[in-house]
Amino acid sequence: MPFLLSHGPRRKRSAPPPPSAAPPRTTGPGSPAGSGGESGPSPHRSTFRPDIEGLRAVAVLAVLAFHAQIPGAAGGFVGVDVFFVISGYLITGLLVREAITTGRIRLGDFFSRRARRLLPSAAVVLASVAVAGAWLTVPLLRADLEQDVLAAALSVANWRFVSQQTDYLAAGHDQSPLLHFWSLAVEEQFYLFWAPLLAVIVLVAAHAVRRGRAVRAVVALTTAAVALASFALSLHWTRESVSLAYLGTPSRVWQFAVGALLALLPWHLLRGPRPLRLVCGWAGAAAIVWCVVSYDASTPYPGYAALVPTLGTAAVVLAAIPGRGEREAQGAHGVGRLLSGRAPRAVGRLSYNLYLWHWPVLVLAEARLGALGWPAKTTLTLAAALPALATMRWVEQPLRRSRTVSELPRRGLAVGISAIILPVVLALVVGTTTLQLMGPATPVDTRGLPPGAAAGPSLLARTDGPPLADGPLVPGPAQARKDFPPDGACQVAPEVTRSPECLFGAVDSPDRVVLLGDSHAGQWFSPLLALASQRGWALQELVKQGCPLPELTVRNAQLGREYRECDAWRDDALDRLRTGPAPRLIVIASLNRYTADRELLSAAWEKTLKPLRATGAPIVYIEDTPVPGTDIPACVSGAPDEAAACAFSRAKAVPADPLARRIAAGAVPGVRSVSVNPVLCPGNGPTCPAVRDRILLYRDDAHLTNVAAIVLAPRLQRLLTESGALPPAGAPAPAPSAAPGADG
Questions:
Q1: Interstrand relation of 585-589 and 512-517 (parallel, antiparallel or unpaired)
Q2: Which CATH superfamily is domain 468-722 in?
Q3: pTM above the 0.90 mark?
Q4: DSSP labels for 119-182?
Q5: What per-residue confidence (pLDDT) applies to 566?
């Protein structure tokens, strides 16, 4: 939460702060962090820094261009880094000056200023999104949105998105309208920690003979230590988790600390001649521009890549710090003079409110109109300047100028608390109402399925015939989101390299069915558990999320790097099957979209199938189920009685399956293939249904609901029996033997 730094001409102390004096927040794109003012060349004095106000304009325009997907600005997300550095510089300088001047830091005043100047504008946006979301979004997304409003109002938005494994750099269609609040939450969390820490340091150093030097030295050493620790953590998380590295507060603290060091170190002793300062400033600006143009979603971020915009921003700030005896106008040269122009400063003053408004406008427009191109997004971004100007004019500035509010810290805190309560109440009211309209979100009771669904050959076990009588959807849209197979933690997470034993059913039986593959295999857990239980067998599940069963090395978006854990897991699973007792049946399945290269895919499958055939167990490949590519429960929640409106393209959802074709052609001995797709996508029409016989088929954009899998169980068992891989229930199973082609 950026601090107030004078943005305009100095006035008498009795006069209320000028409009430009507001502490424009210095965080994420557009935070109105003070542009300069009170954090001048050193903690000893305050000078107006119009160049920083202009630098904020550069930062927010970079982020806006990135969000609008303007060609050539794929790296505009580095604008957030620019804001973080500016924020650390301004706030630390102001706090240390206060400590040196008065001997203490008044935390009540600090947080009061933060609250009254920043939270009201944010509250207006959050309240507007809560209300607009009720009109523009479907019920299931609306419920999610209200949770986002709560998290943003409580300054924990970044951790909510981390918990959802959000990839910020992939921000686009279907993203939260409040995703951009992650950076504001990071800043607020940092200052909740930073300001009290500085206050403690000041208290400890209060008895030093040379108080000013002691405070600056201790704060500088502390800041350097925090920066190094945070940067090391950032590097580690960048390798391990994209969302945690990008959105997590600990991995961003070092950027604030870089700005803080600018305000703490005795730069006047290190300053070179004006030509050197000019080169420093232009080089820093060039580094920022280069990042905007050169970086993109594939750049491992923050990591080492974040050093370039961070140090570039530090160079720009440092180059324009007035030297000893210089006034700010004399200190503005080169890029500093350019940034001090009227236009950059005007955009800089608006940056906080513009940042708050632009992303909700883009996302809610797409929720209503569908995916938009960059020209339309650019137009909407420009239009967002209107509510941004209105908020600054009628919310931010009046509260900033109000003598009544600013007289006592508790009044500013009261304004801030009110600004939190308003969106929280709206979110709770809208969210609760939405959940009531959608029906229960409790787990599905399979005993309540439509007649015959749990028993067998009706419903989805047939391929044609009239639909069943109308009734409630099973599961409901809210239930579908949570309708996972009841296999506990057996679908292991990306960072895990070995599956646990994961035995179900008759776990002591020497006979077992093995379910092997990725999450598209895991969706068949319930039908195969029923199959195994009928025969007194055990079911062993070896499933890893996002890990192709064919021997392909892929990139994991969540980890932001090559998926080495997948290769290790696959090798371990195949080795366990090859060296252990032979199973009665091996069922394999996998998403077939990890590569478009059919030759590469065929070779990869062969590498995986060779050790499986060596076990001598029957192997059945379940063809990949349709992939809708859109959030089916969300769509259905908006039209529960018109589910046909949520049908999706057959051509995109059910592409040719190369492995199934090769099996059918006899090119893969020892492996059989079955498919339930004629039921999930019947006929030869251009679309596939999202709902069939009142069963909601998908829990997201790619996976079957557990209810749909249960309903399909009788058909799947019949297909396995007809293929010859499975004896009928009650019949003795043949002993495993070497499968044809096991050696090749």
A1: parallel
A2: SGNH hydrolase (3.40.50.1110)
A3: no
A4: HHHHHHHHHHHHHHHHHHS-HHHHHHHHHHHHHHHTT-HHHHHHHTT--GGG--TT--TTTTHH
A5: 94
